[in-house]
Design brief:
The protein has helices at 6-22, 25-34, 49-55, 59-63, 71-76, 85-89, 95-98, 104-111. The chain is mainly α. It has 8 helices and no strands. This is Ankyrin repeat-containing domain containing protein.
Length: 112
Amino acid sequence: MKALDQNMVNTLCEALWEATAQGNVEFFVSVLQMVPELIWHQNEKGSTLFMHAIEFRQPKIFSLIHGFGSKQAMATETDNSGNNMLHVAGLLAPSNQLNRIQGAALQMQREL
């Protein structure tokens, strides 16, 4: 495969971030199989794709961490604010996900 130009890399990264937020596992895997180094891409805030998966509560995408890259390196990555994966997991889920679940106890169960 020939080298990708910067515009193509930017487009793929943008698509990966959206696929991560939406939980599109098939697209996520397909792109990373073609260009595995994109797994280390960070956005302007310094967040990784796996932090993004945690933020948007996408367990299937997050579970792919076992298949890509170094687990230790991924777990110790921090964003520009000094937050790691555990900090991101402790944040409240996006409101669109919380609104799908009725009742505080069920929301807490889903969060756990």
